[in-house]
Design a protein that fits this description.
Length: about 240
């Protein structure tokens, strides 16, 4: 009888222990679905396409709060799936190469940090409960071999928010994630912003010079894909 009672108590405790993680994960799903719908089909969507953003920030360019607004959009809307490419182009076109690179880097890094924090707060507990020891093995592999893999992921065309959420679910430590993200974003954002600024100069500058700069930016983006692998080999 005692054994049955203990088994019954354990069976009842298991669903109870999952109640909190399931509730938080449900909130995460509702948040993502609602955010996706708002970004695609609500009146907000009309103000967030590239042309609308470009017009808005060109009007705000002289305002000292314009960079703060750009960074805030990155931080608030990237967790909901807003693509970063239009925002990066806007940053380069409106603020130029030097300032645009800085604001774009801070914005994309803030967006990654926000996405990671939301996913870790609302989804990681459930993944831990369901995956158990398998997740522990993944965490050990990430700690041993995953730093440069995280860096390299910033150079490939994988949805930005997906990388952030996957890292949080996989148990990547915040310090590792934020550092790898900063290292990965810095060269990529620099080159993308350079590309955007060169496009802006194409209308008024020397076309041949601009085309050479665009070609150099594209070559740089291609080489970035292999940089982490080269650095990892140099350490081994």
């Amino acid at each position: 009888m005692t054994g049955r009672a203990e088994a019954s108590g354990a069976a009842e405790a298991e669903p109870t222990s999952l109640r909190g993680p399931l509730l938080r994960f449900g909130i995460l799903i509702v948040l993502l679905v609602a955010g996706f719908a708002a970004l695609r089909w609500s009146p907000l969507a009309e103000h967030l396409d590239q042309e609308a953003l470009l017009t808005t920030f060109r009007d705000l360019a002289a305002n000292p709060w314009a960079p703060v607004a750009l960074i805030a959009i990155f931080a608030a809307l990237c967790p909901l799936g807003l693509p970063v490419s239009p925002l990066v182009l806007v940053g380069g076109l409106v603020f130029g190469f030097a300032w645009g690179t800085l604001w774009n880097f801070l914005g994309t890094w803030a967006g990654a940090a926000t996405s990671f924090a939301v996913a870790r707060l609302l989804g990681h507990d459930l993944v831990v409960r369901l995956a158990g020891r398998r997740l522990e093995r993944v965490e050990h592999l990430v700690e041993r071999h995953g730093f440069w893999a995280l860096v390299r992921l910033r150079f490939v065309p994988i949805p930005y928010a997906l990388v952030n959420y996957a890292a949080a679910f996989a148990g990547v430590r915040p310090g590792v994630f934020l550092t790898a993200t900063a290292i990965g974003l810095a060269p990529a954002i620099t080159l993308y912003t350079w590309f955007a600024a060169a496009l802006f100069r194409a209308a008024t500058g020397d076309r041949l010079e601009v085309m050479l700069q665009l070609a150099a930016a594209l070559v740089g983006l291609f080489l970035l894909t292999f940089l982490p692998r080269l650095l990892q080999r140099s350490e081994s």
